């Protein structure tokens, strides 16, 4: 996920995030040998006026999808790698909610919502704080409000209130676009 966030730069394309996530996962040594499975049925997505919006963000590169939209200020994505110790194939259980790998191996899912500003990616919490707090689930804290994120403007100055957290207007909808048509 951190590699995907790092690839969320002005001028990059959606596929650059997918490539960064896939490359990082493929380079990791798997205990006992073999490769990690990168779950194919689910991935990241645009986020704005709705929870799940275009574009769909794969955690691997699929050449027939093209490069995807160019990343510009205001682009908001949920970057969420999903990795398994075995197959990348999944199935949904009868409760219509629980997803498991078809071979029953353990899997992992991690997610951050990230907005692209003129200054680069903005994540809540910031990646360095998230790395520290991810060690203790109970210690995780989220800001009560998001900074003002507008296309071509970046975050607002925002004021500080008693909590010491950055305050600003609620985020406006992100810029979303469907991926390029298959080549």
TrEMBL record:
One Gene Ontology MF term: metalloaminopeptidase activity
Enumerate the UniProt keywords alphabetically: Aminopeptidase, Hydrolase, Metal-binding, Protease
Q: Where is the composition biased (Basic residues)?
A: 132-144
The UniProt record lists the keyword Protein biosynthesis: no
Disordered, as annotated region? 116-183
Single Gene Ontology BP term?
A: proteolysis
A GO cellular component term found in this entry reads: cytosol
In this protein, which residues make up the domain named Peptidase M24? Answer: 2-117
Q: Which residues cross the membrane?
A: none
Keyword Zinc-finger annotated? no
Known function:
Removes the N-terminal methionine from nascent proteins. The N-terminal methionine is often cleaved when the second residue in the primary sequence is small and uncharged (Met-Ala-, Cys, Gly, Pro, Ser, Thr, or Val). Requires deformylation of the N(alpha)-formylated initiator methionine before it can be hydrolyzed.
Query: What's the name of the protein?
Result: Peptidase M24 domain-containing protein
Q: Which organism is it from?
A: Streptomyces haneummycinicus
Q: What is the lineage of its organism?
A: Bacteria, Bacillati, Actinomycetota, Actinomycetes, Kitasatosporales
């Amino acid at each position: 996920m951190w590699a995907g966030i790092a690839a969320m730069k002005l001028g990059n394309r959606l596929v650059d995030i997918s490539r960064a996530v896939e490359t990082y996962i493929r380079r990791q040594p798997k205990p006992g040998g073999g490769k990690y499975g990168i779950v194919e049925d689910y991935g990241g997505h645009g986020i704005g006026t709705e929870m799940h919006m275009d574009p769909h963000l794969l955690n691997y590169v699929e050449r027939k999808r093209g490069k995807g939209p160019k990343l510009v200020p205001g682009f908001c994505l949920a970057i969420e790698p999903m990795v398994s110790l075995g197959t990348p194939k999944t199935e949904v259980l009868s409760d219509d909610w629980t997803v498991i790998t078809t071979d029953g191996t353990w899997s992992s899912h991690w997610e951050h919502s990230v907005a692209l500003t003129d200054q680069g990616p903005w994540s809540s919490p910031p990646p360095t704080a998230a790395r520290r707090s991810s060690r203790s689930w109970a210690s995780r804290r989220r800001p009560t409000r998001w900074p003002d994120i507008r296309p071509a403007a970046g975050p607002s100055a925002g004021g500080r209130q008693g909590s010491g957290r950055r305050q600003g207007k609620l985020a406006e909808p992100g810029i979303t676009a469907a991926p390029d048509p298959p080549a």
